[in-house]
Amino acid sequence: MTNPDSAASAASALLPHNQPHSKTGLQAQLDAQPISPLQWRVIILCWLVNMLDGFDLLAISFAAPAIAKAWQLAPQTLGVVFSSSLLGMMAGSLIFGPAADHIGRRRMIIFGCLVLAISMLATAHANSVGQLMLLRGITGMAIGALLPSLNTLVAEYTPDRRKNLAISFMHIGYPIGGIAGGWLASQLIPTHGWPALFWLGGLFTLAIVPIIFFGLPESLHYLLQKNQPAAKAKAVKIARRMGLTIQSDIFNIAAKKTNLDQASRQTLRTLLHRPWLAPSLALWTCFFLSNLTLYFLLNWTPSILTTAGLPASQAMRAGMLLNFGGVIGMLSIGYLSARWSLYHLMSSYFILGGLFIIALGQLPTSEYLLLGFTLLSGLFSLGGLIGLYSLTARLYPTTTRATGVGLAIGAGRFGAILGPSAGGLLISLGWPMSNYFALLTLPLIAVAGVLWWVKQPTMSRHNN
Question: Which CATH number do you get for residue 421?
Answer without folding.
Answer: 1.20.1250.20
